[in-house]
Design a protein that fits this description.
The mean pLDDT is 85. Strand 3 and strand 4 form a beta hairpin. The strands form two sheets. This protein has a four-stranded antiparallel β-sheet, with no helix packed on it. The protein has a three-stranded antiparallel β-sheet with strand order 3-4-5. The protein has a domain of 85 residues: Immunoglobulin-like (Sandwich), CATH 2.60.40. The protein has one helix and seven strands; from the N terminus they run αβββββββ. The chain is elongated, with a radius of gyration of 21 Å. Helices cover 8% and strands 35% of the residues. It is mostly beta strands. It comes from Roseovarius gahaiensis. This is Hsp20 family protein. InterPro entries: A-crystallin/Hsp20_dom, ACD_IbpA/B, HSP20-like_chaperone.
Length: 137
């Protein structure tokens, strides 16, 4: 028996890209660091919050690459001269990826008390009714 996918279903035309996005998000390699929250702040807006204690604004980058929000963190190695007796605070680089639906746009990013907030908004499309004229063949 063959596996039925969204892209091969006869009533689901043009959903191949959605299927690829789901596969890409499953393989994105997000390990669990840093921890994050996603909250719905209104009917059409969201906020992603990452716990980035120890990172400065200069250590972080936020990009949108092919409908994918990518947040990267890399701390500078300016404290090489320190001798740690115990080092329990993670100072590793990270990359978090979030697949964005069509119409979702990234707003502002705010750093506050060791938390990075990234605001997203979803623009609602206007309903479109299109009449197709039938030509005689």
């Amino acid at each position: 028996m063959t596996k039925l996918t969204m892209g091969s279903h006869p009533y689901m035309l043009g959903f191949e890209q959605l299927e690829r996005m789901l596969e890409r998000s499953a393989k994105s390699g997000n390990e669990g660091y840093p921890p994050f929250n996603i909250e719905q702040t209104s009917d059409n807006s969201y906020r992603i919050t990452l716990a980035v204690a120890g990172f400065s604004e200069d250590d972080l980058s936020i990009t949108v690459e092919d409908r994918q929000l990518v947040i990267r963190g890399r701390q500078s190695d300016e404290a090489d001269h320190r001798i740690y007796l115990h080092r329990g605070i993670a100072a590793r680089q990270f990359q978090r990826s979030f697949v964005l639906a069509d119409g979702v746009e990234v707003g502002e990013a705010i750093m506050e008390n060791g938390l990075l907030h990234v605001d997203l908004t979803r623009a609602l499309p206007e309903p479109v009714v299109q009449k197709i004229k039938i030509k005689k063949g």
